[in-house]
Amino acid sequence: MSRSVALGGDPAARHALLVAPSFPSFRLLDMGRGRKLEAYGDYIVDRPEEQAMGSPRLTRAEWEAADAVFDGDAEDKAGRWRLRTEPFESFPMRWNDLGFLGRFTAFRHMGVFPEQAAHWTWIEQRLKAIKGRRPRVLNLFAYTGVASLVAARAGADVTHVDASKKAIGWARENQVEAGLGDAPIRWIMDDAVKFVQREARRNSRYDMVLLDPPKFGRGPNGETWNLFDDLPAHLADCIACLSDDADSLILTAYAIRASFLALDDLARPLLEARGGHVQSGELAIPIADGRLLSTSLYTRWSRT
Ligand SMILES: C[S@@+](CC[C@H](N)C(=O)[O-])C[C@H]1O[C@@H](n2cnc3c(N)ncnc32)[C@H](O)[C@@H]1O
Hints:
single chain, 304 residues, alpha/beta, Rossmann fold, nine-stranded mixed sheet, five-stranded mixed sheet, binds S-adenosylmethionine
């Protein structure tokens, strides 16, 4: 269960820090001097982290025992892994008995964003509470699909959209790893913006929409995505794809120079027009010593 810390007075925790719980396959061990030390599955990983401005608490020897170190610092530039072990493609991870694969990718990512666990719990609880119909979930910029699998396991029909053929391939491998091979998931390689516009025109509606756009991206046909320019219209289109009795929407944004208040300012009026509750804030990952690492901004809406 994630911890939620209200960031200031009423009304009804409009803003909250969501602290994602660690899980056996993932722990943040330490951070400092622009790096973070994490445990993914059986591997200790040392990666750059701009937010880690303080001092590390573990010893140099503990950092040097890492199995994998990523060199290269810019978030959107490829870098290089130094692995102590033989290079390998992927390794098993689990969250709440859901299996998926961790990976050492060229852009320093690990094939999963563990802070999203704060949302996974919420997605699962909300979908299970929908009675009398099979919920439809749209997952945009969906990457390796852990949220798609969480939703499918909770009983939803899932539409998973990502521009990257590689990411869709990894997501399908995760489906097998999760033992959800027969789950109703549509895997769609498309530009999220175009896909949502088409769904709106086709009158295709969803109970839950998840969108996790990067700062910059490209659709499969070279369509450009720039969060600051494109999010306002895209979010409005996503909201148009919610059914009349839709349950929820989660917007997350990574590595952008903006406050969560900017997301809130954009999303709140659009979502509050539908009634229900809107909450915005940051996602954070805890270290056992009590410190927190902020990773991203979010706004989420629920009907109840
Ligand atoms: C930050 S990742 C999303 C992380 C994911 N939600 C998770 O929790 O695992 C961004 C993803 O957006 C995809 N992407 C970038 N531009 C896109 C576009 N125009 N349309 C669809 N997907 C896009 C990338 O291929 C990448 O997989």
